[in-house]
Amino acid sequence: MTTPLDWTHAAATILGMAAVTVIARGFFLFREREPKIPPALQRALQVAPLAAIVAVLAPEIFLTHGELLATWRDARLPAAAAATAFYAWRPGMLGPLLAGMAVYLPLRLALGWTG
Amino acid sequence: MTLRDFVGDPFVRRGARDMLAFAPGLTAWGLVTGVAMTQSGLGVGLALLMSLTVYAGSAQLASLPLLATNAPMWVVWASAFCVNLRFVIFSAQWRVHLGHLSRGRRLLLGYALADLNLLAFQKAWPAGTREPGQARYAAGGAVAVWLVWQGSSVAGIVLSSFVPMHWGLGFAGTLSMLGFAYSLLTDRGAWLAATISATAAVAAFALPLKLNILVAIAAAVAASAVVARAGRGAPRPSEVP
Fold first, then answer.
1. Residues of chain A contacting B43 with CB distance shorter than 8 Å
2. First CA to last CA distance, chain B
3. Is residue A75 part of a domain?
4. Is A2 within a domain?
5. Is residue A115 part of a domain?
6. What pairs with residue A68 in β-bridges?
7. Rounded Cα distance, A57 and B213, in Å
8. Is the dihedral of CA B160, B164, B165, B169 positive or negative?
């Protein structure tokens, strides 16, 4: 067994993490003077949030334990395909979620596919 | 501004409504994060403290193995900062729209604005310039995301033993965000950024502390800067054949 958690130490660490959130999210909001960012960079940065969400999603779909999927019997690929097809038919967020899970859950729970 | 004014403001309401479209995916991810915090050994009290104060899901998840082994504080904080580095970039973008607020309001609002807030904001205000109503739109969205995320995260913490994790709840969140990501692919510039980011995020996945996400952002931003300089920048949607 691991050593028991030191409650005070953990609570102080967590409050420090909250400060880290404030610092990171407020990084360029703190100074009174507006930061000088070259307009070309400012325009290029417009794609940063899209890049971030895609960078979160792609490994969730294509990787397992840090490796590319080695088997087709992984429920995530057909589920992502179903969600994509549903999106092409009816754009939105809830529809693709439900369509994808309708494929994902049977493959995983009944057929024992990975995912 | 009184609470009644705030709730009745059309920009606040629109910001909140736009973010409530994310509720299904956010709820799935919030539940998963809540369960993970409790089951990592934090216990209900510390998990609640973390959810309500840290308010950064990826940094919270990354800290759990460190906290479980009583790692030194600075190690946890440095790790959390690395995982949160993308917010440093995003804060430069928020500055454009929130720069006229007082420092206190900038920091409070900045703290409450997560990834999805900026994505929805860019979609609602595509010009990328400061316009009246933007701060209220952002604030309405921040309140909506906070309520949905904390509601589901606290539910995950308190009901951790009842949440059926083997149903792949986390993947449900991924699927719903996939739908949103598709809605952002409106021009060639967006396709380019998404393709490069996905490839880089997968290729650099072995990096610690989610730094693959930062590599992916850097690659996508660099690519779009190069394309813009080459004069073949992303055409407007109306120009796409």
1. 5
2. 47
3. yes
4. no
5. no
6. A63
7. 10
8. negative
Q: What is the spatial distance between Cα B184 and Cα B220, in angstroms, rounded to a whole number?
A: 14
Among A6, A9, A20, A68, which would you mutate to test the B interface (most chain B Cβ atoms within 10 Å of its Cβ)?
A: A20
d(CA B120, CA B236): 19
Q: How far apart are CA B80 and CA B87, in angstroms?
A: 11
Asked if residues B15 and B138 have their Cβ atoms less than 8 Å apart, the reply is yes
A58-76 pLDDT per residue, tens: 999 998 877 787 777 889 9
- What are the pLDDT digits (tens) for B104-118? 999 999 999 999 999
Residues from chain B that touch A39, judged by Cβ atoms under 8 A, are none
| Structural domain total, chain A | 1
CA distances from A77 to A72, A86, B199 (A): 8, 14, 16
Q: What is the ipTM of this complex?
A: 0.90
| Backbone phi, psi, residue B198, to 5° | -60, -45
Nearest chain A Cα distance for residue B106, angstroms: 6
Q: Which of B97, B148, B146 is nearest to B118 (CA)?
A: B97
| B231 dihedral zone (left: phi>0; alpha: psi -120 to 50; beta) | left
Distance from CA of B156 to the nearest CA of A (A): 18
Q: What is the pTM of this model?
A: 0.90
What domain range includes position A75? 7-110
- Supply B28's token pair: 């799935």
Q: Rounded distance, CA B174 to CA A54, Å? A: 10
In B, which residues are within 8 Å of A84 by CB distance? 178, 182
The tokens for B36 are 């993970």
- At B22 the three-state DSSP class reads coil
| A56 is a domain residue | yes
The one-letter amino acid at B140: G
Residue A14 backbone phi and psi in degrees, to 5 = -65, -45
- A1 vs A83: which has the higher pLDDT: A83
Residue % of chain B over a pLDDT of 90: 83
